[in-house]
Amino acid sequence: MNENIIELKGLTKRYGYGDTESFALKDFDLTIKRGEFIMIMGPSGCGKTTLLNIIGLLDRATSGEYTLNGEDVAGISARRQARLRAKKIGFIFQNFNLIQDLSALENVALPLVYINQPRTVRLKNASEALRRFHLQEKEYYLPSQLSGGQQQRAAIARAIVSDPEIILADEPTGNLDSRSSNIVMEELKAIHEEGNTIIMVTHNPALTVYATRVINMLDGQIDTDVKTVADHNLPQPIEVKVKKRKHRSRRKK
Ligand SMILES: Nc1ncnc2c1ncn2[C@@H]1O[C@H](COP(=O)(O)OP(=O)(O)OP(=O)(O)O)[C@@H](O)[C@H]1O
Ligand SMILES: [Mg+2]
Predict the structure, then answer these.
(1) Whose C-alpha in 20, 146, 148, 189 is 20 to 30 A from the C-alpha of 69?
(2) What are residue 117's phi and psi, to 5 degrees?
(3) What is the pTM of this model?
(4) Domain of 119: which CATH number?
(5) Domain enclosing residue 161, as ranges
(6) Could you read off the pLDDT of 71-118 as tens digits, one per residue?
């Protein structure tokens, strides 16, 4: 059975004090197993982006517990958060967030700076990631020279280039036509089947067919939480599969 990769307990995010006090998240509990593909839905302002940013260590909760891979990360330093983020988490945004004056290749290579890969290795890995998303011929294009769908595929290449275990996507198909949206979803599906954990915010109910669990939020809390795939049927991380295979072949001898 896949282990818990993320545990949130009593998470609260408060903005303002006194009369202006409001809660983006209120006493929020959520346990996520490795290999889940979670879709988060809910009305505008219910706290979806806030939740994703806290899980992605881009933002901090006002109070509550956050355990990532068994480690308490709620109170760790910003520096340590940044290091963990670079190693474990890939982000995909609605507006792609590519740096406009860097080529697709340089954009995809960027996260590898934070895990200290030398430049030649970075460019080689970035080029491979772009090839996976059929963008190898556009390596030297600037984001403005790519279509929306191509920009988002470059952004997905950037999110997975450092081989993170968790992919966070905030309305990744929100700015795409249905054809590009389908391509992006098929790519995310393939990444999920490799055993990665994906948490995606969407306003499009049709996309929930890709999810193993659908969470509806309301006013900073979970309204409904439905698993469509049993925990024991979640994809296993690839290393585990390889280890199991080795084990089996040893037994045969
Ligand atoms: N910096 C801030 N200061 C004050 N309130 C904020 C701040 N950031 C977010 N909020 C509030 O927190 C609540 C949750 O915002 P959040 O961006 O998480 O919503 P969302 O569910 O992602 O909405 P959408 O679907 O429109 O993207 C909103 O009421 C918002 O106004
Ligand atoms: Mg949002």
Answers:
(1) 189
(2) -80, 145
(3) 0.91
(4) 3.40.50.300
(5) 4-252
(6) 999 989 999 999 999 999 999 999 999 999 999 999 999 999 988 899
